[in-house]
Known about the structure:
single chain, alpha+beta, Multidrug-efflux Transporter Regulator, Chain: A, Domain 2, three-stranded antiparallel β-sheet, 3 strands, globular
Amino acid sequence: MPEAIANARLLTTSEAAAAIGCSYRTVQRGIKAGSIAVVRVSRRVFVPEREVAKIREAGLAVLPSQLDQPQAKVKKAHASTAG
């Protein structure tokens, strides 16, 4: 195991979400999309502190994986005019 990984502080997904300022689910989506690097230990998933710092330094309010998703279309209700 590389020394950088062995000495890295690892955060749970909940801790990473709190540090980034987003929801736990947002972190999960970023991990699934591959935009957040993780370390897997058996069945557990950890986010390296350096990855959290990278996201915070970039000032991302939205994770890169969410930028590619199409925005939901908003339907406007048309007021009917009674004559």
